[in-house]
Amino acid sequence: MLIKLTGGKVYDPINGVDGEIRDIFIKDGRIVTPDPSDKVGQEYPLHGRVVMAGGIDPHSHIGGGKVTIARMLMPEDHMGHEVARTDLTRAGCGHAIPSTLTAGYRYAEMGYTAAFEPAMLPANARQAHMELADTPLIDKGAFVMLGSDDFFLRQLTGKQDFSAIKDYIAWTMHAAQAIAVKVVNPGGISAFKFNQRALDLDEKHVFYGVTPRDIILNLARGLKELGVTHPLHIHGCNLGVPGGVETTLATIRGSENLPIHLTHIQFHSYDTEGDMKFSSGAARVADLVNKHKNVSIDVGQVMFGQTCTASGDSMRQFVNTRSADPKKWVVMDIECDAGCGVVPFKYRDKSFVNALQWAIGLELFLLVDDPWRIFLTTDHPNGGPFYWYPHMIRLLMDKSFRKDMMQKINQDALKYSSLPSLEREYTMYEVAIMTRAGPARSLGLKDRGHLGAGACADITVYDDNPNYEAMFEKPELVFKNGELIVKNGKIVKVVNGATHVARPTYDPAIEKQLRSYFEDFHTMRMENFRLSDDEIVNGGRGSIIVQPTGARTA
Amino acid sequence: MGAQGPGARDSDGNGAGNTYENVTCPFCGILCDDLEISSSRSGLKVKKNGCGKAIAGFERDVSGAKPQIGGKDVSLAEAVTAAAGLLGKARLPILGGLGTDVDGMRAVMALAEKSGAVIDHALSDAQYRNFRVLQSGGWVMTTLTEARNRADLFIIIGTDVHKMHPHFFKRVVNVETSMFWDNPPKRTVVFLGEGLDTSGVTGSRIGEVISLPAKNERLGEIVTAMRAMSKGVAITGDTIGGLPRAAIEDLVERCKKATYGVMVWAPPALSFPNADLTIQAVSEYVKEINLHARFAGLALGGNEGAVSTAAVAAWQSGFPLRVSFASGKPDYDIERYSMLRMIAAKESDLLVWIASFTPDLAPPDTDIPMVVLGTPGLRLASKPEVFIPIGTPGADHAGIMVRVDNVVSLPLQNLGRSSLPGLGSVLAQIESAL
Fold this sequence. Notes:
- The structure holds two protein chains of two kinds.
- By secondary structure, chain A is of the alpha/beta class.
- Chain A has one domain (about 55-490): Metal-dependent hydrolases (TIM Barrel), CATH 3.20.20.140.
- Helices cover about 35% and strands about 25% of the residues of chain A.
- In chain A, strands 6, 9, 10, 11, 12, 13, 16, 20, 25 and 26 form a ten-stranded parallel beta sheet that branches. In chain A, strands 1, 2, 3, 4, 5, 21, 22, 23 and 24 form a nine-stranded mixed beta sheet that branches.
- In chain A, helix 6 crosses helix 8 and helix 9 (about 245-255) runs parallel beside helix 10.
- The longest helix of chain A is centred in the middle third of the chain and has 16 residues, at about 350-365.
- Chain B contains 13 helices and 23 strands.
- By secondary structure, chain B is α/β, with parallel strands linked by helices.
- In chain B, the strands form five sheets. Chain B has a nine-stranded mixed beta sheet, with helices on one face. In chain B, strands 12-11-10-15-16 form a five-stranded parallel beta sheet, with helices on both faces. Chain B has a four-stranded antiparallel beta sheet with strand order 1-2-3-4, with helices on one face.
- Residues about 1-15 of chain B have low confidence and may be disordered.
- Strand 18 (about 330-335) of chain A pairs parallel with strand 9 of chain B, so a sheet runs across the interface.
């Protein structure tokens, strides 16, 4: 059946469409240029409405062991936010760390049709995918963590042939069913297990003798030569450290023009000026990001209220436990592979530090000039839950609203940030880039994030409301694969999204080495470490979309 | 999951003489995945790397069991209809026992929501000794491979690990290889507790084995004294918790000197009032050591699918078991929705008991009407209203379980032991008949 969306104001940056009135046609789940002989079976008049592709969150901790540890740790966070079963939807809960089902519903109700779990430990990949399988309506995918795992660090130490390193990266992406690779506190999670408490960019890991810089460059180059679209996703050294901005700047300068993505960069943009030895380094970071076209970022905006941080960065999270609120937390060393730290936080608008974190995030949004290289995130749930996105969009699009909000926070914090002087307002087109077109292009989702013929019909329709928060919070219509799933912000149909993966090539001979490595050292066989396609498809509950990779060089 | 896992090797092509490699054993929380098992017309045979629990679990005869209503054989469809009828009439049913895997628990969650039931696992009393600590203070934990390669000191707290997990020492402690040393340093293993079997700790990797026989009820006192001593507090008295003070001082010194120490306990073994406070003391001690050195906890137990069911309950509802769906919303109360308490107080009018692994996971002796979905041979004190035999994940059908360290999950192969249905498919039928 041909579906026609008539007369909406369309923002489709991948195809250069900036607020033009256009009709969109859907057939068999895809956007099409209709054949003149096709009859329209259903029409949605969208005059005065804004039409975009479904939102895509490129960095949201919604599935995997540390998220479920956070759920178990914080029952008080769920209480009062329980959600009842309906004939259509399952029960759950949701505030800072929603249940899997509720997370899927809330994303869809907010007009998002895809979200990516950015920190899947190889050892925990199976559980991450099981949780994502229980996250309905949206497409999903996961970035596999490398860089503190013994096998890779040993490859670097042993100066192994670079093609073997690439084989291992590619093999791990296959085995863990990943679309991208993330490095978290490069080498630092491992170093913490050897009782190192900090590891700066050029500091040597006490056991392996390699530096975070070595790790970043090897992984970034490896991914580039493997043809993986999404650049190395970097959670840098020194998260949350005043003065950490220097490391961030050095990381960008040292990137040797390789594509890199610096994630939740807000947490890595702290300078040391002023009485509190804590100030914004956002302007310096933004200036360098603007100059280095090989760099993309997401912000990790802090929003005020209770949340629970969940990170692979056990080294830094152990330090952050001093600020745990409430006073309980989990830090784990995991399988000579990775780690995690789960620490509840309450960001307060009257706190100097928290208010400045908020301001730094907004500064970064407003000072980075290319919206194709900056994505809207709270690093859910670390800066705050993802339900804040509509509010954040209003902060960026509406200068007077932003100034009103600035009145409410600790005023001293504003003295150490350039935020009060920034007058920029994001356009609707820029918002469409930052929340769907940009993430789709960066992740290599070929048929997502746009509205051209052939695209998957993941479409969101908003009321054209000058209150942008109200507009983005409750879309009028959301289509997933051409099916109407949300009407006036409420779910009307439940479907299951797909899992996106990327599969660069590797020499299968590496499995011989890995098989004996697993048998010698691990408590799991290599054959059981690998996730099969069948596990994700699981009798039709899920599906896999293999996104293209470029040709492998060498 | 595929009909057969990655290790299936069909030797005669007719399905009756297969050898399966890299088999995961679901019969304790450690989930060893290095077993080799052959199947023939007479059943399964564990060929390699099986412990007593594995042999008993896999090689058990499960043939011939039929669904029953009131003790009389019926068809599966009749049993499903009867079970749905009872569930539909019940005012506050309990879906309990919950000896199952991830997919089974997913079906439990869906059915609990639809029928307004309470969910709780048979071993929750034990598991909640840990959850109470997690939810009030948290901890620093490690996992099996991390401990295996890194630890130089293991302190076993009041737990007869060898009996509960017969291959733990072999796979994690006695191991002669390590990622980090060609000739790994020797390990010290301390058994803190009474009547603990030390015989599993053997081999060239093991240095000292120290037994400190304290009563479990006094472990909290001992660990609290260790915390105080390590902060420089002078403790007088010749004995602490029934042990010589010098022995405790020595243990504190060993903790201080360890490169990577691991405190090991299994909550089912710490079965005395307020044992969670002992676990809390251990966890706080580990946190304090970590201010300067590295140390971690490693909680064991988690048999009968307890870890998997708590994980699925947590990711789907937000809460690790002890949830009531009576109002439609998940209502969490770790006291009120304790299954055993509710049964004793007769607050429920139907117990749906689920036990798919061992015949030992018997339901409590109660006159509350019961629907049992169990492995054939499950020990039952009385005839339930409805009995439906179900398969064991990892023997009769495929599945996935979460390991005791809450990080690794493992695929369970279909070894073709029987054609018994999986819990998930039976519950789905009951749900659609509701």
